[in-house]
Inverse folding.
């Protein structure tokens, strides 16, 4: 099977698109059951691996890299529009 | 068959190369170094921009440490040192720092006989030393004697997703084998203090990590002022980086996830094994010099935009983060981590990189080595005068 996404660390709650993904395209990553993306995802951007409530940490590389600023659904694009930096606030 | 071999040095270190190094003590003699390079092309000749006019005690310390470390470097079997005579790092002043190197060193100064005679003597010495060390043979190299540096530069959005992840997998594998791994670039650790400090061997190492990154962040703010937050740029964000912590995580991932056993100063030799951090700058050339001066015999270097840079006497394995740059710069790239995007598993890529690394350790030239893409530049803290 050809993968189009990568789970970097087992603890991660996001998966990284390895190429541009079209609306509804299935995420295919090792160790993950396929699921559709809810919007277009640019290459190297993050996709939620499960529903993530507002205020929860985003884990990538097995570490906290941001906090969600709203509820995020599985398959949704995860980026600055629904995140806050814990460090230098927007 | 995964045995590695190297050259045993009298000080207990092992080299993975056996080079004759022709080193300038100051930029004024670069022309002499270039002449020697033409007459003795097998020697590794290092001209550079330093030697005088260093702006502070710290800069002078760095200059002496890096030049001396090049002489001591385990990949170097013998040295021709070319000085001028009146420079800060003149051969007399350097002598106390290199006299215990336990390898043949021949020293010539241009103010003793002029540039052409120095070049002639230097080239003869280089050829003599090349012949002299050519009989040394490789013996099995214990993994515990290997220090591998991890570097990233000319990064793109995929660097933190493919290439640095692959470097991290190799780092973890190396530490598991008993080898050591070192990486620096403190500006690219901003936002990851908590992560790196948590991995520290003990409280003292953790404190050093936090101090190092706090200082890097403060320096960034001092230099860039209100623009500091642009350390994460619109380009980074377009590439999928949402926060500075996420960007830095992509960078520090190249060291893997094992315990951090020591923080060393720029160019300082580690006294511990396993994963080591270096308090060094983000600029590739300066960073490589610090990592090499710390005694690393080999480097992995990930790149997304593509840089051909290698380092004198140290094999540098170039890892492309995407297939496009791998193909565009096929003459410069050794590994394509973009293959992860085309379906190769991380385990497969890691094995490919380990196999490549072992071949390189055992003598196969990297692209940067074969192309002689050496870059030698060192960290400067204060403006030179």
């Amino acid at each position: 099977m050809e993968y189009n996404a990568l789970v970097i660390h087992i603890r991660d709650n996001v998966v990284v698109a390895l190429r541009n993904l079209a609306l509804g395209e299935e995420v295919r990553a090792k160790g993950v059951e396929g699921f559709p993306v809810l919007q277009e995802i640019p290459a190297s951007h993050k996709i939620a691996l499960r529903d993530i409530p507002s205020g929860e940490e985003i884990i990538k590389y097995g570490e906290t890299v941001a906090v969600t600023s709203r509820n995020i659904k599985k398959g949704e694009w995860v980026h600055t529009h629904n995140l806050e930096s814990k460090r230098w606030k927007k | 068959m995964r045995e590695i071999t190297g050259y045993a040095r009298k000080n207990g270190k092992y080299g993975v190369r056996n080079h004759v190094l022709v080193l300038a003590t100051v930029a004024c003699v670069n022309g002499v170094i270039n002449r020697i390079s033409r007459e003795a092309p097998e020697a590794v000749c290092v001209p550079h921009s330093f030697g005088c006019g260093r702006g502070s005690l710290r800069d002078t310390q760095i200059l002496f440490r890096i030049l001396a470390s090049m002489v001591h470097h385990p990949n170097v079997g013998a040295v021709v040192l070319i000085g001028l005579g009146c420079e800060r790092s003149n051969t007399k002043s350097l002598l106390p720092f290199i006299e215990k190197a336990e390898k043949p060193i021949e020293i010539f100064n241009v103010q003793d006989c002029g540039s052409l005679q120095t070049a002639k003597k230097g080239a003869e010495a280089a050829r003599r030393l090349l012949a002299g060390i050519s009989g040394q043979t490789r013996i099995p190299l214990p993994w515990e004697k290997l220090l591998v540096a991890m570097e990233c530069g000319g990064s793109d959005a995929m660097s933190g997703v493919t290439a640095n992840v692959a470097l991290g997998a190799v780092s973890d594998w190396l530490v598991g084998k008993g080898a050591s791994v070192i990486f620096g670039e403190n500006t690219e650790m901003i936002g990851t203090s908590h992560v790196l400090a948590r991995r520290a061997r003990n409280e003292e190492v953790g404190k050093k990590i936090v101090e190092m990154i706090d200082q890097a962040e403060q320096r960034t703010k001092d230099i860039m002022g209100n623009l500091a937050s642009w350390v994460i740029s619109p380009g980074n964000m377009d590439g999928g980086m949402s926060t500075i912590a996420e960007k830095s995580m992509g960078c520090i991932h190249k060291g893997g996830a094992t315990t951090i056993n020591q923080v060393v100063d720029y160019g300082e030799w580690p006294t511990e094994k396993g994963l080591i951090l270096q308090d060094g700058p983000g600029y590739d050339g300066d960073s490589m010099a610090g990592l090499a001066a710390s005694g690393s015999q080999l480097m992995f270097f990930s790149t997304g935009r593509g840089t051909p840079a290698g380092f004198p006497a140290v094999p540098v394995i170039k890892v492309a983060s995407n297939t496009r740059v791998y193909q565009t710069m096929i003459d410069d790239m050794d590994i394509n981590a973009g293959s992860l995007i085309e379906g190769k598993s991380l385990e497969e890529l890691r094995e490919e990189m380990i196999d490549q690394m072992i071949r390189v350790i055992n003598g196969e030239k990297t692209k940067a080595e074969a192309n002689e893409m050496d870059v030698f530049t060192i960290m400067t803290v204060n403006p030179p005068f």
About this structure: The mean pLDDT of chain B is 94. The longest helix of chain B spans residues 203-224.
